[in-house]
Amino acid sequence: MNDLLTGKVALVTGASRGIGRQIVLAFAENGATVYANARKEGSLDGLSENRGNISGKLIPIYFDVTDADASKNAVMRINRESGKLDCLVNNAGITQDALIGMINKKAVRDVFEINVFAVIELTQLAARIMIKQKSGSIINMASIMGVNGNKGQFVYSASKGAVIAMTKTAAKELAPHKIRINAVAPGMIDTEMFRSIGEEKAIERIKNIGMGRLGTPEDVAKVCLFLASDLSEYVTGQIICVDGAAII
User: Fold this and answer.
1) Nearest alpha carbon to residue 71 among 24, 32, 119, 26
2) Residue 233, pLDDT score
3) Is residue 36 predicted with pLDDT exceeding 60?
4) Vertex 235, ends 238 and 95: CA angle to 5°?
5) Contact 205/169 with Cβ under 8 angstroms?
6) How many other C-beta atoms are found inside a 10 Å radius of the C-beta of residue 35?
7) What is the reported pLDDT for 218?
8) Catalytic residue among 35, 62, 156, 234
């Protein structure tokens, strides 16, 4: 299927690499007009090169998700240019790992600014448009660390736990307006962030995955595609783990 999102308009944050980049491509390949967000100007250049199967549009939109005014201007621009916003994917996120006792306030602040506060801000901005049009899908990127926790990831797990709680609450509040809000909780995905732990640790962690392999950004993007499409029109408030039966 390559027309699941034909006519839909989406905003995907954190789109310059990894999971975000693949979500953008999957949405565009299925007919959506996708506003792909990144913080660094020019980082989305060449995003659609050598992708002959894109039937939608890719529109780079550069802003820092922690800047409330910039986020507001971006959402207003999308509404002005496209007249609607059908899907928001809150994908931008960071991790700063440290053991308890070694965590500083700046690290906590930095992680929550992007992983939590920016999600709250963009969700509110998108909801205002979606309430008026009486439709929409918001997809929040959580993590199995937010579901199960993990040693050495106290702050990151807390931030993703907050995303999960927000998703469940917002789903109940916005359901009467026909707005769906779900979260995707990836496990160990083959991205630059995961590979940064080193080959030895990576091999050890793969042993804990039931399916015997790392997940791919494509695995996560496919679930997001389902949640953005009308196939999931009665699905809301769910936390979908994409982890290959990983044990943490």
Assistant:
1) 119
2) 97
3) yes
4) 35
5) no
6) 25
7) 97
8) 156
**Residue 78: its H or E element:** helix 68-82
**What is d(CA 85, CA 130) in angstroms, rounded to the nearest whole number?**
7
Confidence of residue 234 (pLDDT cuts 50, 70, 90): very high
**Contact (CB, 8 A) for 183 and 129:** no
Q: What CATH number is associated with residue 135?
A: 3.40.50.720
Residue 1 lies in a domain: no
Residue 4 lies in a domain: no
Q: Among this protein's residues, is 156 annotated catalytic?
A: yes
Q: Give the count of domains, the chain.
A: 1
Who has greater pLDDT, 38 or 151?
A: 38
* Gyration radius (Cα) of the chain, Å: 17
pLDDT in tens, 179-222: 999 999 999 998 877 766 677 777 778 888 999 999 999 999 99
The residue range of the domain holding 27 is: 9-242
Query: Is 72 part of any domain?
Result: yes
- What is the pTM assigned to this prediction? 0.94
Q: Residues near 159 by Cβ (< 8 Å), separated by ≥ 6?
A: 93, 111, 112, 115, 116, 146
- Cβ atoms of residues 4 and 29 within 8 Å: no
Residue 2 lies in a domain: no
Structure tokens, 103: 């965590």
